[in-house]
Amino acid sequence: xxxxxxxxxSAFRYIRAFSxxxxxxxxxxxxxxxxxxxxxxxxxxxxxxxxAGGKALEAFASGSRENLPVEAREHVxxxxxxxxxxxxxxxAIEATMARALYLADHSAKxxxxxxxxxxxxxxxxxxxxxxxxxxxxxxxxMGQAPLRFRCYAHQKLVRTTSVMTxxxxxxxxxxxxxxxxxxxxxxxxxxxxxxxxxxxHTRAR
Length: 205
Known about the structure:
The chain is α+β, with helices and mostly antiparallel strands. 45% of the residues lie in helices and 34% in strands. The chain is rod-shaped and about 110 Å long.
């Protein structure tokens, strides 16, 4: 009789231990499943899909500070493209210069005024000269504020009979400002100066 009770008591302890282990295992599995589910949801929320040409292209969201060097270099490139890409058309010159001047302070406006007063734009128009720029590299010092940059580029002046190539090096500083349609990168170029703009070679067309 007592032996039977001992067997029942042992069986109850085994069942209780087994049940406790099963509950703990289920809780652990559920916790892991919930954790990875939240990770997947968070990762899915960081994905952005852009439709282009009938295809869905995936992009990823990231913090603004992660893209700061890229944004800074792109701002410098965009400004130089607008300022130095000129057609022999006064309306086109005014339009590109207006875009460039949204990205910089009075130092760029002063350079523009100097070129206009010297007759540079008039010479482009009367001579049917197109001006193009190729940005070789942009260096930005992220260790100081405002950010100091230096831009290395080549200019091409395309005439009817020849193409002249010039070396161009400029530098300045970048100050963070509010983003807008006219200034999507959120920087303003300050104290912009041209360090070098010398003739390299001329070739016949």
